[in-house]
Amino acid sequence: MISVGILDRGAPAPLHEQLAHGLRAAILAGRANAGDVVPSSRALAADLGVARGTVVAAYEILAGEGYLLTRPGGGTLVADVARAPQTRATPRVVAPEIIASAVDLRPGRPGVSGIVDAAWRSAWRRASGELPDADVDDALGDPGLRAQIAAHLARTRGLDVTADDVLVTAGTSDAMLLLLLALRPATAGARMRVGIENPGYPRVRRILDRVGAEAVAVPVHLGRGLDLDAVEAHDDLDVLIVTPHHHYPLGSRLDAADRARLLRWAARTETVVVEDDYDSEFPHGRAPLPPLHLLDPAGVVVIGSFSKVLAPSLRCGWIVATGAVRDAVACARSDLDPPVSQIPQRALALYLEDGALARHTARRRRDYRHRRRLLLDAFAGVDGVELLATDGGLHAVAVLPGAGSAVESAVVDDVARRGIRVAPLSSYAVPGETSDLPAGIVFGYAEPSILTLVEAIGDIIDVLRRHGAQAGSGG
């Protein structure tokens, strides 16, 4: 049996995470080689005196990270992984604009390992084996997929919606564009006014510019969240786009009282609220609050996608809308034609119907919580650095309170010289608007291997410490 160290039942870390850590260390240390067959979950559980489910969960974590390979009917093998060198070479300093980045930690990149399993292959094989329809019968999306998305949202978000309320989109950007086209003012020459969070998702601003809509920045404050006083100062918005569950990128959320206040304002001003549900599959232990749509189905539109739980490259998402808004969006979709082809829609419908998405999400959730714990442990005790947005999702924000934009640029450049790509926090601010953002960086932690992630975090902390010390000394 591979030596996995001692499992401490009194430790705060769950047993399956301790076991995964021990097995991972054994593989990286060379005590288990590529191609070695690991013990069956039943045999290892018996040897360690733990439940079989503990071993299964540990194996799933390592398979998702790429340390183990599963073969149907052939057991589980150790993967061929790159091991850490005994000594780390001094990074070669090159201009950040020409560096060939080794590690891309820009946010929005989920882990995709482990998706292609037997359930995934089966769903796509069955979908591609069906005879394609002669024409597009339903511009709103495949009825089977819409029904499965409605059921999925009922289970995971508590939304009481039907397939008729769901429209299939090619991801979140397509959903935004479709909504903006559908909700444009009927008055000739009137310019659409759309409230957006500042800081917020940069692509929203670009989409608004493309359709000729006016972006109205609404402040989101560090530590305080969406400025509802600023929201209530407006009675001339057609649409307000918000991320109430886990603000992007700062991580704040609207509590129950603020949600009620926001919806009262929206009802009074007849503003359509667009609820961007971009990462609620990964709350990391934080008790969920009811979606805005559940509180006001007629006034709130929900947009979401499979990007974070599966992969952005699938380009498949949804809009949930009811009443007059749903009719307007359906009309616009019929004019433009559906952007997602039939076979991917049918494959995803089968994948959801089989329960495979729920199982995959559970595996991803365990993996991401483990990565989050590594991140929190690494930053614990790092003076002069605050880590934000870790209560959910797949990204974090590291800020240097009191430091200015020059420090932020230097941090991003120095991190890039070490072969790591991150996003400057200032890139999420609306240009030309006042902002109280400190210097900081935004980075994801879901996509690289654990070994690569841990090394990259170490490099990021080194850079932040050095620049934080320089800022503190006035240097």
- Fraction of residues in β-strands: 5-15%
Major sheet size, sense and barrel closure: 8 strands, mixed
Helicity, as a percent range: 40-55%
Total number of strands: 16
Properties at a glance:
single chain, 475 residues, alpha/beta, Arc Repressor Mutant, subunit A, Aspartate Aminotransferase, domain 1, Aspartate Aminotransferase, domain 2, eight-stranded mixed sheet, four-stranded antiparallel sheet, 15 helices, 16 strands
Plain-language structure description:
- The protein has 475 residues and is an alpha/beta fold.
- The protein has three domains: 15-78, Arc Repressor Mutant, subunit A (Orthogonal Bundle), CATH 1.10.10; 103-109 and 358-472, Aspartate Aminotransferase, domain 1; 118-354, Aspartate Aminotransferase, domain 2 (3-Layer(aba) Sandwich).
- It is built from 15 helices and 16 strands.
- Strand 5, helix 7 (202-210) and strand 6 (214-221) form a beta-alpha-beta unit.
- Helix 1 (15-28) packs across helix 3, helix 3 (52-65) crosses helix 13 and helix 14 (405-417) packs antiparallel against helix 15 (450-472).
- The N and C termini lie far apart (55 Å).
Topology:
Layout: H1 15-28, H2 41-48, H3 52-65, E1 68-71, E2 75-78, E3 103-104, H4 118-129, H5 143-157, E4 166-169, H6 171-182, E5 193-198, H7 202-210, E6 214-221, E7 225-226, H8 228-232, E8 239-242, H9 256-269, E9 272-276, H10 292-295, E10 300-305, E11 317-320, H11 323-336, H12 342-353, H13 356-379, E12 386-388, E13 395-400, H14 405-417, E14 420-421, E15 423-424, E16 439-444, H15 450-472
Parallel strand pairs: 3-14, 5-6, 5-8, 8-9, 9-10
Antiparallel strand pairs: 1-2, 4-11, 6-7, 10-11, 12-13, 13-16, 15-16
